[in-house]
Amino acid sequence: AGDLLFRIDPDPIKIALSQADATIAAAEVKVGTMETELDTTGVDISSAREDVAFFTEEYKRQSSLMQSGFTTKARLQAAEHALSTARSKLAGAEADAKMARAALATGAAAPGVNPGVLAGQVQRDKALLDLSKTEVRAAASGTVSQADRLQLGQMMVQGLPALSIVANERS
Fold first, then answer.
1. How far apart are CA 97 and CA 46, in angstroms?
2. In a 3-state reduction of DSSP, which class is residue 142?
3. 137 has which bridge partners?
4. 3-state DSSP call for residue 12?
5. How far apart are CA 131 and CA 129, in angstroms?
6. Distance in angstroms (rounded) separating the CA atoms of residues 9 and 29
7. CA-CA distance, 11 to 17, in Å (whole number)?
8. How far is the C-alpha of 79 from the C-alpha of 64, rounded, in Å?
9. What is the pTM of this model?
10. H or E element, residue 99
11. Which of 24, 70, 81, 103 sits a CA distance of 20 to 30 A from 8?
12. For residues 142 and 48, what is the distance between their CA atoms, to the nearest angstrom?
């Protein structure tokens, strides 16, 4: 029992392992990029809020001056337009932040782990499992029969026996 019967070519599995590592690395870079985008939206929101506050005060000032007759209707309309634009910028920045947070969201299957990273980790685990199965060993002591059916480079069919082992009789 435990004797090596045959080896399955590990190269395709090693390639799958490398692909999984690349998938993980790409997903981690993407997460970093998304975190940076989220941080940037925070700056955009702060800037837009400052603009809204400034243009709100400017509009109030122009409105007060208009009532007193010390400004023109054009200046009041310009202040109103600037305030509207600032509010739109703030809404856009808040929407961008919401989208960035959603892109960074994790699923219930693995809280705290990005789905792209998780997919790469699962691919890696499968490749490692497959790699551990490239050496086929005898489950019992005995004599191998039908080994002549095996040919170098032969493609194996999953689930079908490749050879038979006739167990030794115990005395």
1. 12
2. strand
3. 4
4. helix
5. 5
6. 32
7. 10
8. 12
9. 0.71
10. helix 73-103
11. 24
12. 79
